[in-house]
Amino acid sequence: MTEHEQRTAAQREQTHQEQTHQEPHEDQAAQAAVREDGAQVSTGIDTAGVPEAAIPELVIISGMSGAGRSTAAKCLEDLGWFVVDNLPPALIPTMVELGARSQGNVARIAVVVDVRGRRFFDNLRESLADLEARHVTRRIVFLESSDDALVRRFESVRRPHPLQGDGRIVDGIAAERELLRELRGDADLVIDTSSLNVHELRAKMDAQFAGEEEPELRATVMSFGFKYGLPVDADLVADMRFLPNPHWVPELRPFTGVNEEVASYVFNQPGAKEFLDRYAELLRLIAAGYRREGKRYVTIAIGCTGGKHRSVATSEKLAARLAAEGVETVVVHRDMGRE
User: Is the model's pLDDT at 1 over the cut of 60?
Assistant: First the structure.
């Protein structure tokens, strides 16, 4: 190669490098637009041609700061879910599309969405509508907790609430509740962690997600004592205080509703068996409606004064009936042993 030819080749190479620098690949330009905009994402990825069976199952974890979102996400991660923390809602459909093209390697995706997203949070409803239009199976798990419990948790770690600004922790909690109000109403599963420790929360998540086959409906039947407050995650509440209280029977007072003698006493009272029959019939009607609406989880709270005798006995009987009818049922005695 002559000296002239060498100079010509060098000039061509320099020109090519300058054009490459000045005109980036359109994918790179799109990524740059995402970085500048933050709220608008366009990857050009869609699920056209992807079998519906390959579209991943999606769980969205949200709720109050300090209520246990990280613990719930870690539990799903341990169960084999692909977990993304604090993903901007606008990117959720993109995450699902990428999973759909993973050839089955990403079959279940869990996304944690919370107020740390701030400006992205408004896009969540639009993303959910997009997922519904694509027939993506998605569930929303909402972690709830009382104000008192949240304040104690923030004070114990000496960290401010992400929304309190110059105010108090309770101000941040109130602002967050208002922001999440609609999302809580749309949730498929609400878990109140006010009185749960880490292990108990993990047990609840395991009970809901560890099974290989997804049942049509899962029910939690929870006994509780009215004197300790209503369960905030209850979908339905029944009051058993219309029955005589075994607490006033000296030989029954030390025992609980799981004891056969207490259960026999409760269901030998006028109206007890009739209530159980009719309430079970009502639940069959409600369960059918929940299935039609795509609601997979229901928490049925049964209360009495202290949550020890009447509510416990009724919860046990009701759970047995639901299980016999094919509803996967978990029994929780929230306040038993609390007195």
Answer: no
Q: What are phi and psi of 174, to 5 degrees?
A: -65, -45
Structure token pair of residue 9 = 């080749």
Short-list 338, 330, 334, 262, CA closest to 298: 330
Q: What is the DSSP letter of 309?
A: S
Q: How far is CA 58 from CA 134, 138, 207, in A?
A: 12, 5, 17
Q: pTM for this structure? A: 0.58
C-alpha torsion sign, points 197, 205, 303, 181: positive
For helices 272-292 and 260-267, what crossing angle results, to 10°? 90
User: Hey, which bits of 36-130 come out as E strands?
Assistant: 57-63, 82-85, 108-112
Contact partners, residue 329, CB within 8 Å, separation at least 6: 218, 219, 220, 221, 319, 322, 323
Interval 137-180: pLDDT, tens: 889 999 999 999 999 999 888 888 888 888 999 999 998 998 88
pLDDT at 21 over 50: no
Q: What is the DSSP letter of 59?
A: E
